[in-house]
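[agent] plan:
  1. take the single chain provided in the ticket
  2. run structure prediction with default settings
  3. attach structure tokens to the ticket
  4. add a short note for the reviewer (M.T.)
[agent] executing step 1
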Amino acid sequence: MTVWAPGTAPLPAKPWKGNGRPPKLPPRDDQHQPVSLKALALELPRAAWKNIPWREGAKRNLRSRFAAVRVRPASRDYDKAEPHAEEWLLIEWPSTEAEPTTGYRRCRKRPRSRLW
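[agent] step 2 finished; step 3 output follows
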């Protein structure tokens, strides 16, 4: 899945030149492309990640690193006149892993946590 990184969005449609139907679809070029979820997670600064206990286990609390980011989904937006609405992306990156493995969750409301 791909998303528009924070602060970016699809380009606006080209201006109408007076002939034919007005363009409505957003153009894409080599410099203006959405990014994959994994690439976005790797680009986030260290300060974006928080250690949060997410469940009580039998011997100890289970903890992991999470980041919450506002993004705009980019999947199949090349054939839409209006871009997707912004959503919260919750990314889990366990401290024992070299890169994010799982845990991508999208939600419209801000994730609940004492730390955000």
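[agent] step 4 note for reviewer: The first strand starts at residue 2 and ends at 4.
[agent] ticket updated
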